[in-house]
Amino acid sequence: VQLQASGGGLVQAGGSLRLSCAASGRIFSNSALGWFRQAPGKEREFVAAITWSTGGTSYAESARGRFTISRDIAKKTAFLQMNSLKPEDTAVYYCTARNPKTLSYTMRSSYDYWGQGTLVTVSS
Description:
By secondary structure, the chain is mainly beta. The protein has no helices and 11 strands. Strands 2, 4, 5, 6, 9, 10 and 11 form a 7-stranded mixed sheet that branches. The protein has a 4-stranded antiparallel sheet with strand order 1-3-8-7, with no helix packed on it. The termini are far apart.
């Protein structure tokens, strides 16, 4: 599976951005696609994930209520709609995917494939 992330950019605090993650290759029905982010000098952290077949979602506390993850099965693309952005959301956002497994979505090491990252900068 190859992943191509896009949609990052510069936005003012309170604004919105929509990230896209286009996948190629085989995606199993119980696979999950997710987003992690890494701010300068910090660890890469979980943001959100979605189960490919059921559309079930999981969010980090920092994202819940502001971000929405979704997917278009026909286009093999996942999206991260980010609203009410804050300066602390500034980071490189990475699209990721994993084959079916029962591990927590928040576990970075459980993911098998990673995209190249897209930079989101939120100005105050």
